[in-house]
Model the fold of this input.
Amino acid sequence: MELDPTPFNLDNLLRDLGVILATNLTHKPVALRFEVGDEVPRYLFGDTMRLQQVLINLGGNAVKFTERGNVVICISQNNNSAEKSALLFSVQDSGIGIAEENQSKIFSGFTQAEASTTRRFGGTGLGLAISRKLVELMGGTLQLESQLGAGSRFYFTLEFTLLNAQQIEQLNQAPQAQTQAAAQRLH
Done:
């Protein structure tokens, strides 16, 4: 598997993520919140598809294992230079949590915390193993903090290249060009 870095707007990625995760919240008293630090740069160069895949998986699990309460996706700046920014991504829930003795197992493929969890919530247990591999491929480490009955927090730090003004302008013009091209095809 190889990375496919492209310029992207973090706000657009989070908007799409919110739409995807909201479809799983229709019948649950669970609030989905995004907390993005003001210092977090919005225009980045990285593998947006793989990042979104990881966040969809972690957010989807958080929603699945939370009967009521909150799922919070946080992004904060961990480190910054003129050309790069290290961002800390965190997905935290108020769900069922994971017992300490089961935490090391959940990153193995086809494994969930315990058999009763698989029966109750379903799933193959592959998502966290895949997410961990993708985060490692992008240069980070997927980590976990959890307490049985008190929710979980999955987090990782990734470094991105910052876009310059010209790249930002090109990125912002791309959707307009796509819309105009689509409109021309319709006429």
Q: What stands out?
A: The radius of gyration is 18 Å. The longest strand covers residues 69-80.
